[in-house]
Design a protein that fits this description.
The chain has 149 residues and is α+β, with helices and mostly antiparallel strands. Helices cover 36% and strands 28% of the residues.
């Protein structure tokens, strides 16, 4: 083989290996990608069937029901427009309460019930990390200083 052909072969093999690596990385990323949907979007059949996604909203008042096994809980997630029933087996987070925000990850079954694998309770909508609150306060002070001058 001529040196020119060896270089061309190495370049072609390198490009093929790079392409295969990129395809494998993108496939792994696609399979781990989880989208978020509101109850209204789920009710409008915008959410995927048979694929994991997240649903978020408020836990409807009076909807939490614990099964006799002690670890299975059913509740309703609402965005005040539509309601989606959710079933979860496991330990719920401490912040999980009726009337509070929740995000659940799982799959929608054929009967329209969301089967959650994970439940995350959200903080109060008014909660803000101290660093963000400080940054906003400093920005507002800076803006007042500019207006006064």
């Amino acid at each position: 083989m001529k040196p020119r052909h060896k270089k061309l072969t190495i370049i072609i093999m390198s490009v093929a290996a790079l392409g295969l690596s990129a395809a494998l990385v993108l496939d792994a990323f696609q399979s781990n990608l989880v989208f978020f949907f509101s109850p209204s979007q789920v009710a409008a059949n915008e959410a995927p069937r048979g694929r994991s996604f997240r649903i978020g909203g408020l836990v409807e008042e009076g909807s939490v029901k614990r099964q006799s096994d002690g670890i299975t809980v059913s509740f309703v997630v609402t965005d005040t427009a539509k309601n989606i029933p959710v079933v979860y087996t496991g330990i719920l987070p401490d912040l999980f309460k009726e009337g509070k925000g929740v995000v659940a990850q799982g799959k929608l079954s054929a009967d329209g019930v969301f089967r959650a694998d994970e439940v995350l309770a959200k903080h109060d909508e008014n909660y803000m990390p101290p660093e963000a609150a400080d940054a906003l306060e400093q920005a507002s002070k800076a803006q007042k200083t500019v207006v006064i001058k």
